[in-house]
């Protein structure tokens, strides 16, 4: 998952879900390669040992988070923010006084970069830093920069400086394709912010954007807020499954994997019980988005949000495949284990599909974990990336104050001929108050600087893995291993996108394209030829048997249709919420109708799952992107890597056609370049359906 950047225009575009070739593909002309550091160490070993205490040395100079000097203390965010805002003023003056030409786009991009370097970093710190003072300071910086971004997007003089460039046909024709696209993206941000409106309406657009920012933040916090119930209202024998607080039981999640049906039912009904404040917040958020879309000339928020994506227009997915068969399979298993009540309810599929998989294929996670130590998995990634793309990962010791927790590891990403490409900070381990989500954050985007140096990208990968013990290193379940590969796909997108402009760097691309590299990595994680390179028992060194990998891959097809239908339901609900307003019913009534029509399981009275749907913030009108990206990734895998997952020529083509452009090229052109054809909607649907069936070629190979 990509963390969502909430800034439009001069902030991060689309989702923190946008590479290019500075000359068209690698480091590009004029960018100097970085030399290799002698302080780097092998990546596998670095993750199977505890961090050295020296990084917490109490003496010596403290550098600040990510090496930013101001951020050695929370107050530094205010300093960094003020510096960025002052620089913004100077750049705005410069943009408005510079004759139209390529230099105009460079100034706009520098403006975007100066704001993003504070906002992107703050977006991460506000949710991940263990110290409340840092989180609060980062939250304030996000708000301050976000407000400035919205003002810039409605600055008429700034808009006119770009308009002069784009309305001069001779000048436009002289621009290279990447520069022209970046100029058009900046213009698009102006237009969707209502630059064409009169002064009063422009102010209204700014106010609405700020309101949406605040409502989004409030709603997001509310999606994780626990509910409580008096103890006497729950059967005593299930109390131990939940947190106890005096006379109350605290329910902080769905407990979807709990074996006891009653525990899952109670958690579902209590955790999803409607909260009036959260409901009002969602209604205001959807209404404000609709008002903003109409104000700037779109019929719905969906039409506004999908400009420039693969889909281009609002998407309704009528995709049904084998779902009834899956639910019947779940019902039979439930009857077998609980004969008194075999009706399949919404809290049942995650648990019973797991039971069916375990019974049919004997894939108990504890059998696999010893083969997937974190160090082994990191070495596996290193091997794959090296053979496919010529990239190596090296552990580097961070300076004091550079990281926010002692177990954060810093990786240098190094190309065999181009040198240092960037840095990945790995925040992999569980800790108190850390969000329970796996995602990728852009901290600093790459761009070609005026002096010819390349501003190296910096990202964070955040996971929630168990810590090592005295007797063993951190051991991953197959699902954790797949998530690790997924997030590294995002990181490689960031590292290999050598765009000239920060505004379209790495994952700053349309949402329905940004998940393609991460989902593609899941296919590598599930291929025995890849897994065989690194899966070794941490004690004996024994390789993971081939039949265990085959069983694991086959088991993932069990109830996969029901899982996909659930995603179709979520995507459809998202589209309806962001479609025509006023909504024909309450958000809860719409949930009920959509769930029963597109998923098939009954709505449970007095529940409001939509109030826990956190993706409505970052993926508003774009939740379909997961399905679209999976379809594209499936086609790329089968066309280019199924025969040989280590095919270097295919890897280089993948970098050249897909990773290298970020948001600097139309997403469909990148897909066409990789597949050597233009896929249709039917091709995408066929790819999704084929993904549910056992891959015959892979099955034959794994069964030999």
TrEMBL record:
Predominant location: mitochondrion
Cofactor note: Binds 1 zinc ion.
Keywords (A to Z) from UniProt: Acetylation, Calcium, Cobalt, Hydrolase, Iron, Magnesium, Manganese, Metal-binding, Metalloprotease, Mitochondrion, Protease, Transit peptide, Zinc
Domain Peptidase M3A/M3B catalytic: 255-687
The EC number(s) this enzyme carries: 3.4.24.59
Classification via Gene3D superfamilies: 1.10.1370.40, Collagenase (Catalytic Domain), Neurolysin, domain 3
Signal peptide coordinates: none
CDD domains: M3A_MIP
GO cellular component: mitochondrial matrix
SUPFAM superfamilies, sorted: Metalloproteases ('zincins'), catalytic domain
Catalysis performed (reactions): Release of an N-terminal octapeptide as second stage of processing of some proteins imported into the mitochondrion
GO molecular function, one term: metalloendopeptidase activity
Cofactor: Zn(2+)
GO biological process: peptide metabolic process; protein processing involved in protein targeting to mitochondrion
Top-level taxon: Eukaryota
Protein's cellular compartments: Mitochondrion matrix
One Pfam family, short name: Peptidase_M3
Subunit structure: Monomer.
Family stated for the protein in its record: Belongs to the peptidase M3 family.
Function: Cleaves proteins, imported into the mitochondrion, to their mature size.
Protein name: Mitochondrial intermediate peptidase
Organism: Aotus nancymaae (Ma's night monkey)
């Amino acid at each position: 998952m990509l963390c969502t950047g909430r800034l439009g225009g001069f902030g991060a575009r689309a989702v923190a879900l946008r590479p290019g070739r500075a000359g068209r593909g690698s480091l590009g002309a004029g960018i100097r390669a970085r030399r290799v550091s002698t302080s780097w160490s092998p990546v596998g070993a670095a993750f199977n040992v505890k961090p050295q205490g020296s990084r917490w040395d109490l003496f010596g100079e403290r550098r600040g988070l990510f090496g930013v000097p101001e951020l050695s203390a929370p107050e530094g965010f205010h300093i960094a923010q003020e510096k960025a805002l002052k620089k913004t003023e100077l750049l705005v003056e410069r943009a408005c006084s510079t004759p139209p030409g390529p230099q105009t786009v460079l100034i706009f991009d520098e403006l975007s970069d100066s704001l993003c370097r504070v906002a992107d970093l703050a977006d991460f710190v506000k949710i991940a830093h263990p110290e409340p003072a840092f989180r609060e300071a980062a939250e304030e910086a996000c708000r301050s920069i976000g407000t400035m971004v919205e003002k810039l997007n409605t600055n008429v003089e700034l808009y006119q400086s770009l308009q002069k460039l784009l309305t001069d046909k001779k000048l436009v024709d002289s621009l290279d394709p990447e520069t022209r696209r970046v100029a058009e993206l900046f213009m698009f941000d102006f237009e969707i912010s209502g630059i064409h409106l009169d002064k009063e309406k422009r102010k209204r657009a700014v106010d609405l954007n700020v309101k949406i920012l605040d409502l989004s933040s409030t709603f997001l916090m509310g999606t994780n807020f626990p509910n409580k119930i008096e103890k006497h209202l729950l059967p005593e024998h299930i109390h131990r499954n939940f947190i106890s607080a005096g006379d109350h039981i605290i329910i902080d999640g769905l407990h979807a994997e709990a074996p006891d049906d009653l525990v899952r039912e109670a958690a579902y009904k209590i955790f999803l019980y409607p909260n009036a404040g959260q409901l009002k917040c969602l209604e205001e958020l959807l209404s404000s988005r609709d008002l903003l879309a109409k104000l700037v000339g779109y019929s719905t928020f969906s039409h506004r949000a999908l400009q420039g994506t693969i889909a281009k227009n609002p998407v309704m997915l009528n995709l049904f495949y084998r779902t009834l068969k899956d639910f019947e399979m779940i019902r039979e298993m439930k009857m077998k284990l609980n004969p008194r009540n075999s009706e399949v309810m919404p809290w049942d599929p995650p648990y019973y599909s797991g039971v069916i998989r375990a019974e049919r294929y004997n894939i108990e996670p504890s059998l696999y974990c010893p083969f997937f130590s974190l160090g082994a998995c990191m070495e596996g990634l290193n091997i794959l990336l090296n053979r496919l793309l010529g990239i190596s990962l090296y552990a580097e010791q961070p300076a004091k104050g550079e990281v926010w927790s002692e177990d954060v590891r810093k990786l240098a990403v190094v190309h065999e001929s181009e040198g240092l490409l960037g840095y990945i900070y790995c925040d992999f381990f569980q800790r108190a108050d850390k969000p329970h989500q796996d995602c990728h954050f852009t901290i600093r985007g790459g761009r070609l600087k005026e002096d010819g140096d390349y501003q190296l990208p910096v990202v964070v990968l955040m996971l929630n893995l168990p810590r090592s013990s005295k007797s063993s290193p951190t051991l991953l379940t197959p699902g954790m291993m797949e998530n690790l590969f997924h997030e590294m796909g995002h990181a490689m997108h960031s590292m290999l996108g050598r765009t000239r402009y920060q505004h379209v760097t790495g994952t700053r691309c349309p949402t329905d394209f940004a998940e393609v590299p991460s989902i593609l990595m899941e296919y590598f994680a599930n291929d025995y030829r890849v897994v065989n390179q690194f899966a070794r028992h941490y004690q004996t060194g024994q390789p993971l048997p081939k039949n265990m990998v085959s069983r694991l891959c086959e088991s993932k097809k069990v109830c996969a249709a029901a899982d996909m239908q659930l995603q179709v339901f979520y995507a459809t609900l998202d589209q309806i919420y962001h479609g025509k307003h006023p909504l024909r019913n309450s958000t809860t009534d719409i949930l009920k109708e959509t769930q029963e029509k597109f998923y098939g399981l009954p709505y449970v009275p007095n529940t409001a799952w939509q109030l826990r749907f956190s993706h409505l913030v970052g993926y508003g009108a774009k939740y379909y992107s997961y399905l679209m990206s999976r379809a594209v990734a499936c086609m790329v895998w089968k066309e280019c890597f199924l025969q040989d997952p280590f095919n270097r020529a295919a890897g280089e083509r993948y970098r050249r056609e897909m990773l290298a452009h970020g948001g600097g090229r139309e997403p469909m052109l990148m897909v066409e370049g990789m597949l050597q054809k233009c896929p249709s909607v039917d091709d995408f649907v066929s790819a999704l359906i084929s993904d549910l069936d056992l891959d015959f070629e892979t099955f034959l190979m794994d069964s030999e």
